[in-house]
Specification:
The protein is an alpha/beta fold. It folds into two domains: 13-238, Type I PLP-dependent aspartate aminotransferase-like (Major domain) (Aspartate Aminotransferase, domain 2), CATH 3.40.640.10; 241-352, Aspartate Aminotransferase, domain 1. 39% of the residues lie in helices and 13% in strands. The chain contains eleven helices and twelve strands. A seven-stranded mixed sheet has the order 1-9-8-5-4-2-3, with helices on both faces. A three-stranded antiparallel sheet has the order 7-6-10, with no helix packed on it. It has a two-stranded antiparallel ribbon with strand order 11-12. Helix 8 packs parallel to helix 11. It is globular and about 70 Å long. The two termini are 28 Å apart.
Length: 354
């Protein structure tokens, strides 16, 4: 069997035709395709407004700026995430305040309140690997302390929490369309909100702070625009997202069922809709290197997301030394899935005898 890659974008002739049409039109920068993508994405998430941008990182930066977060402010978040989350908090001059994670890899909502100070301006939970955080508790805390909530849903496009999609629960949601995500535009991101004032601010920040005619600036901004090429790909990908998620869920459920005797799996709770952007679990630290080597020798790509937390908190530190991620993709075959299940089971059984 050929190597089974951990991630691979599912791009077909539909996307190719959309891109060719844009190239033929001569309108390559942000235009009608981006506007259409924004409209359809807002409808999919269940919000009034969506603002497309150049990356998920840009979406985070825009969101923090739109809420006026800056020098001297604090933002509560997880130490166990991709660095973009942390970098953008620092980029606006704020301080990231870290709260430990639970065994499901998401921020521990029961520890958030203890981290709040007079300088806290936002809570930034990350729906890691496609599993929603406990947004009910997080929103209660935010409301109680008059703190805004920004959802980092980069890895969770389409995930649901109690009948709402993530990105429609906090004040702002941010998404990434990098090739490893549920849907891709190559590069690209999106901010979602139900607040018109924030919507208008996000649009300003995305386009150099320009308002009305060219060279009329009302705020500090950046070139965070999405191109119509990316917008066209996004429209096509979004039309297939339900089928992509269905495949990912099917693989995730199969992994859970067949691997539960060997590893600790993280099943969905009632009302929680996991989209399985990644499939991750822990193995004993002393066995991880051998475990991964065995998978790789059997043609199974595997990664460590993430090798270390941004601060040493007990759960985050322990999990970073034990975590392994295996392939899960919407274009994975049944044979590939069965091959992975077999070898994860075999190496785990063998290691337990050591």
């Amino acid at each position: 069997m050929e190597k089974i890659w951990i991630a691979s974008p599912q791009i077909g002739m539909d996307e190719t035709r959309e891109v060719i049409d844009v190239l033929k039109s001569g309108m390559l920068a942000q235009g009608k395709k981006v506007a259409e993508f924004e409209k359809k994405f807002a409808e999919f998430i269940g919000v009034k407004y969506a603002v497309a941008c150049s990356s998920g990182t840009a979406a985070l930066h825009m969101s923090l700026l739109s809420l006026g977060i800056g020098e001297g402010d604090e933002v509560i978040t997880t130490p166990f995430t991709f660095i973009a989350t942390i970098n953008m908090i620092k980029a606006v001059g704020a301080k990231p305040v870290f709260v430990d994670i639970k065994d499901d890899f998401n921020i521990d909502e029961n520890l958030i309140e203890k981290a709040i100070t007079s300088k806290t301006k936002a809570i930034l939970p990350v729906h890691l690997f496609g599993l929603p955080c406990n947004m009910e508790k997080i929103m209660e805390i935010g409301k109680k302390h008059h703190i805004e909530v920004i959802e980092d849903a980069a890895q969770a496009c389409g995930a649901t929490y109690k009948k709402k999609k993530v990105g429609a629960i906090g004040k702002i949601g941010t998404f990434s369309f990098y090739p490893t995500k549920v849907i891709t535009t190559g590069e690209g991101g999106m901010c979602t909100t139900n607040n018109k004032r924030i919507f208008e601010k996000l649009k300003l920040i995305r386009n150099h702070g320009m308002v009305g005619s060219e060279y009329d600036y009302s705020a500090t901004g950046f070139n965070y625009r999405m191109s119509d090429i990316e917008g066209a790909i996004g429209i096509s990908q979004l039309s297939k997202i339900e089928s992509f998620i269905k495949v990912r869920k099917n693989i995730g459920y199969n992994y859970n069922f067949h691997l539960e005797p060997y590893i600790k799996v993280h099943k969905e709770e009632d009302g929680i809709g996991h989209v399985y952007n990644n499939y991750s679990f822990v193995v004993p630290e002393k066995h991880r290197e051998l475990f991964m080597l065995n998978l790789q020798e059997n043609g199974i790509d595997c990664k460590i997301y993430y090798p270390k937390p941004f601060v040493n908190l007990p759960n985050a530190t322990r999990i970073s030394k034990q975590i392994v991620s295996i392939p899960i993709r919407s274009n994975m075959t049944t044979d590939e899935m069965q091959h992975i299940i077999y070898h994860v089971g075999e190496i785990t059984k063998w290691l337990k005898q050591k």
